[in-house]
Amino acid sequence: MEIKNKRLTEEEFQAQRKEVLAQWPTGKDVDFEAAVAYHKALPEEKVFSAKLNKAKAEGVTLIQPRAGVALVDEHIKLMRYLENEGEADLLPTTIDAYTRQNRYEECQKGIDESIRLGKSMLNGFPAVNHGVAGCRKVCESVKSPLQVRHGTPDARLLAEITLAGGFTSYEGGGISYNIPYTKSAPLAQTMLDWQYVDRLAGAYEEAGVPINREPYGPLTGTLVPPSISHVVAIIEALVAAEQGVRNITVGYGQLGNLVQDVAAIRTLEELTEEYMDQFGYKNHCITTVFHQWMGGFPQDEAKAFGVISWGAATAALSKATKVIVKTPHEAMGIPTMEANAQGLRATKQVVRMLSDQTVASKELEEEKAIIRAEVKCMMDKTLELGNGDIALGAVRAFEAGVIDVPFAPSRANAGKMLPARDNDGKVRMLNFGNIPFTKDIMDFHTAKIEERAKAEKRAASFQMVIDDIYAISAGRLVGKPNK
């Protein structure tokens, strides 16, 4: 199985499509031409890319939650609450775990149990089972644009049904929905499956219907160095563009140090634009998404609001196009819709307060320079491994450990690189594994880690990594001993 970054032919796409739509009975209700007409009748304020592009032009940071329940009417109730009481600018539909694994029969059992018990027995919205009609009912019940958020290695049927159902944004990618989410799925296969998703989005685009695509930025969510998540985002943006996608939102998960996080968002947009130009993809709109802290949260709600507000401030100061908002119930499981709305309102307050402020410093420019240099090292080697083909290069880069995501469950990931914070809380690399950095970059990381070790009067070791993982839930950013 070998992948190439080459647009699927119409014959290849339609041959796959016949098989994909036959995976579950609701697939028969997908009619592309009718779906295009449905989208063209949507008002502009319900089109995800239009709202993002307007926000980018105006320098505004939009807010978006995560949320989803099993039944259509209850999901509508939840979406309306987050839109009205939470003041969300953009709405999600988080998909349930069974759908993510293409286990639609179990989804149906979950739907039936949810009806019987009068409460959601699934951890998200089973869009495939509800079909095109169920999705359109949701889309027609709210004023804001809707995005599909999930975590599905093979998301082809889910894409067909939700896009035909009126959703105008679709999250995920062949790398970002494999490496952090699965153990055994072959990377080449998930990338091939996501070429189909991107070709579908591209077909809508060519028919005059803009579909926003968003690679999943945070990856494993904890201590992922900016350059690693940047490389994955850039690769997924490039392979999407090859299939005809024009509206792309690249993402990044908060690490906690303001300077590093602002540098990360700014370089992410700049580098994605540069690589799109380098590969000849023109007339694209690149926007950014900042994910509030994805690691452990304090159980105390007041302290959790502190974490949320810090993420909101960072998103605003970085000028991210949108921010994905956490809730004060993060440490306790699935949040209530009231708690979800509270996180949104807290975020909106901070974002509005900081909308006219910015961050600029020598330290920021230095951090941007190190991120850029690291990305170049990995991208150059990835292209070399793929003989100029970025998709093939990505598969080979993961095999060689050239791209290495910390704490990922996937067997396709080397798992040799280890991150740790420096004395200022910026995420550096304790072990490089096979990441092909130059000597000066490696010396920089080593010196930063040693500076912390000296300050804490202990050797640089894996214990630092463990301490950093639990630090925020214990009320700190850097996992310093005896603090």
Characterise the protein shown here.
This protein is α/β, with parallel strands linked by helices. The protein folds into 2 domains: about 10-355, Alpha-Beta Barrel (TIM Barrel), CATH 3.20.20.240; about 415-483, Glutamate mutase, C-terminal domain. Helix content is about 50%, strand content about 10%. The chain contains 17 helices and 10 strands. The protein has helices at about 10-20, 30-40, 50-60, 70-85, 95-100, 105-115, 125-140, 155-165, 185-205, 225-240, 260-280, 300-320, 335-355, 360-385, 390-400, 440-455, 460-470, and strands at about 60-65, 90-95, 145-150, 170, 210-215, 245-255, 285-290, 320-325, 420, 425-430. An 8-stranded parallel β-sheet has the order 1-8-7-6-5-4-3-2. Helix 8 links the parallel strand 3 (about 145-150) and strand 4. Helix 7 packs parallel to helix 8, helix 10 crosses helix 14 (about 360-385) and helix 11 (about 260-280) crosses helix 12. The radius of gyration is 21 Å and the shape is globular.
- Under the CATH scheme, which class of the largest domain? Alpha Beta
- What is the mean predicted local confidence, pLDDT? 97
- Based on CA atoms alone, the radius of gyration comes out at 21 Å
Distance between the termini: 51 Å
Strand arrangement, major sheet: 1-8-7-6-5-4-3-2
CATH architecture descriptor name of the largest domain = Alpha-Beta Barrel
Shape: globular
Looking at the structure, the CATH topology of the largest domain is TIM Barrel
Main sheet characteristics = 8 strands, parallel
Can you tag this structure with a few keywords?
single chain, 483 residues, alpha/beta, TIM Barrel, Glutamate mutase, C-terminal domain, 2 domains, eight-stranded parallel β-sheet, two-stranded antiparallel ribbon, 17 helices, 50% helix
